[in-house]
Structures are given as structure tokens and as C-alpha cells.
Amino acid sequence: MTLWQRLSESSHPVALVFFLAFRLGALFTYMFGLLFTDKFVLMFVLVVLLLAADFWNVKNIAGRLMVGLRWWNEASETGESVWVFETADPQRYINPIDSKVFWMMLYGAPVLWVCLAVLALLKFQFLSLILVFIAVSLTVTNAMAYSRCDKFGKANNIVGQVSGGLLSRAARGTFLGRFM
């Protein structure tokens, strides 16, 4: 079975396509954009726009449709920031293809952006490093929020299967462990 056939079995193919387009579009534009033009500012703006679209899409549409989770941040009456997490009805059918693609890309993108940050640092490309820090902050925020939102452990099961449990055990002992 080809990748296209598997993805066509999605319960929400439009949400899946936009999820992948924004997430991969930002990465590919950052990595290969300067091959097509020498205008760094244009690439910077385009990547930031793709990252913003990805953040909004994941937070408001893809997470709700693909895995039945949603989160937002609001200010309480005392002015404190309060994170609100919402989970769909546990009886709701979650398509395994949607779920696997969502969780793997949700956790995979920040890892790729961190690798690109290390590369930019080693190459002394400090303007690129600013862009990569924006990407890391947006993708990690979504990843941490959805990890906290996932009451039933769907993400932890998928991450455990993919990494053999190494990532989840390592994350529990670090800063990320507070959010998991």
C-alpha cells in the first residue's frame, strides 16, 4: 500500500493535507528556499507566515479534527494566565492514520527545528538562528500543550512505540517532564 493510499484513508483528508502542507512547507522553505532566490528577507517572512499558519491550524483545527483535542490560553480575573485543555468524547472514533501522522509530526517537527538550530549555530548564521528559534518556540508550544491535553495517553503510546520508550523516559527527567 502506497503512502498516498494510506493518507487517503484519513477521516479528515483536508485537515491532514493542510496540517502537512504548513508543517512541511515551513521546513522545506527554510531548507531550500534560498536555492530559488537570494532574498533572505523574503524567505524569513515566508517561513514566519508558514509557521504562524501551522501554529494556528494545529491549535484550532487539526488537533480538534484529527485527534479530538484542543487547548487555549486565557486570562483569569486575577490576571493570571490559565491554560484550558479540552478532550472530545472518549467514545469518538479517532482514525489511526490521522492520529499517527498528527503525533509523529507534532513531535518530529520540533526535533528537526532543533537540529537546524544547531546547524545554524555551528555555521554562525545568526539571522537564521533567530528564525529557527521562532520555529522551535511555536512547535514546542503546540507539542507541550497537546501532550498535557492528551489525558488518555495516545501520544505517549505512539511515541513509546516509535522510540522504544527512550524519548519518554528521557523527557520525564528534564524540563519537558513537567509538561508531560
Would you mind describing this structure in some detail?
The protein has 180 residues and is mainly alpha-helical. The protein has one domain (3-178). It is built from seven helices and two strands, in the order H-H-H-E-E-H-H-H-H. It has helices at residues 3-8, 13-32, 40-67, 96-122, 126-149, 154-163, 166-172; strands at residues 69-75, 81-87. It has a two-stranded antiparallel sheet with strand order 1-2. Helix 2 (13-32) packs antiparallel against helix 3 and helix 3 runs parallel beside helix 5 (126-149). Residues 170-180 have low confidence and may be disordered.
Q: Count the beta strands.
A: 2
Helix content: 55-70%
| Percent strand | 5-15%
Secondary-structure element string: HHHEEHHHH
Main structural class: mainly alpha
Radius of gyration: 17 Å
Strand numbers in spatial order across the main sheet: 1-2
Shape: globular
N- to C-terminal distance = 34 Å
> Major β-sheet, in short?
2 strands, antiparallel
How many domains would you count in the coordinates?
A: 1
Number of helices: 7
Return the average pLDDT rounded to an integer.
Answer: 85
Low-confidence stretches: 170-180
Subcellular location: Golgi apparatus membrane
Protein name: Golgi apparatus membrane protein TVP23
Function: Golgi membrane protein involved in vesicular trafficking.
InterPro entries: TVP23-like
